[in-house]
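Morning, I've got a small favour to ask if you have a moment. I owe you a coffee for this, so here goes:
>
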Amino acid sequence: MGEMSRKVSSLCAVDEEILARYRKALPAITKEIIDSCYEEKCNRHVDFEPIPSKESVIGIIEKFSTILFPGYFTSEKIDPVNLSFYVGQNVTQLFGMLADQVAKSIRHDCSRYSLSCLECSEKGYEIALKVLEQVPAIRDMLALDVQAAYEGDPAAGSYDEIIFSYPGIFAIMVYRVAHLLYQHKVPLLPRIMTEYAHSKTGIDIHPGAKIGESFVIDHGTGIVIGETTTIGKNVRIYQGVTLGALSLSREACEQLRGQKRHPDIEDDVIIYAGATILGGSTVIGARSVIGGNVWLTESVPPDTQVMLEKPKLVYKNGASKQDGINIKED
C-alpha cells in the first residue's frame, strides 16, 4: 500500500512539473494578447465607462414578461390581494434596470463616437419612465396578438397555451418593447433585445420595423423582418418568411443606410411558409395571399393571390435492388 502511494505521489509530481513547464509560456502569450488589443483592427471596449450588459438586458426582458403577463412567468402566487404590491415592486425594479442600461447605451455612443453628452443618466431615467408609461398600451396590443393567434390556430387549446409556449408571442413581446426604445433613439439596447429573442426563437425582427395590431407569427422559425418593413393590422406570416432588402454593393449599402429598403405589407395579408419578399418599393396589397416559397421583388395589388405553379410530381414504383430500395423506371 505504501509503495502504491509513492507511485501515485511520483506521478502527481511529474504532472505538476509538466504543467509548470507549459504555464511558463503564458506570460508571453498574455502580453501578445494585450498588445493586440491596441491595434486598430481589434474589436474591443476597454474604457472607464461600462458598456451595456447583455445579461442585464435579458433580466429586463424577463422583468417585462412578468409585468406584461402578470402571473404567467413567476413562481410567486399572484392574486387580487397582492397584485398591487407585486406590480409596484416589479415596476420599481424594472425602472432602475432599464434606466441604467439606457444611460449606458447613450453614454457609450457619447464617449466612443465623440458626441456631445446629453446628460446620460437623466436621459436614462426620462426614457425608462416614458417606456413604462406605455406598458398598458403594449399590453393591449399583445392581447390582440394573442387573440388573433388563438382564432387562427385550431391547434391552440387556450390563450394560456399561446402565452406560455408560442415562440411568436415571445418574439412579438420583445419587439414591441424594443420598438419603443428604438423610437426614442436609444442605441444598442433595442437590437440586443431583439437579437436575444432571435437566439431563443429563430425569429429575427428588427426593432425599427413598424408592425400593427393582431399580428400573428405561426411556428416562426426562420422568419426575418427587416428594419424598414411596415406591417399593417391582422397580418399572419408563417415559418421561413423573409421580408428583406435586395443585396447591394458596399457603396450602395452606405448610400441606403437609414433609407427605405424593406417591403410594406398592408392589412389582412397572409404570407405562407418560405416566401421571400424584397425591396423598399415592394407593397403587398391588403387582403392578399402570398403562397409558400414565392419570390417577390415587385408590388402586388390588393385582393391578389400569388402562388407558384403546381410542380409536376414523378412517382416511381416496382422492383429494383439498388441501395435496398425497389425502383422501376417507366
Notes: The CA atoms of residues 293 and 311 lie 12 Å apart. The chain is about 45% helix and 10% strand. The chain has two domains: 47-202, 209-309. The longest helix spans residues 83-112.
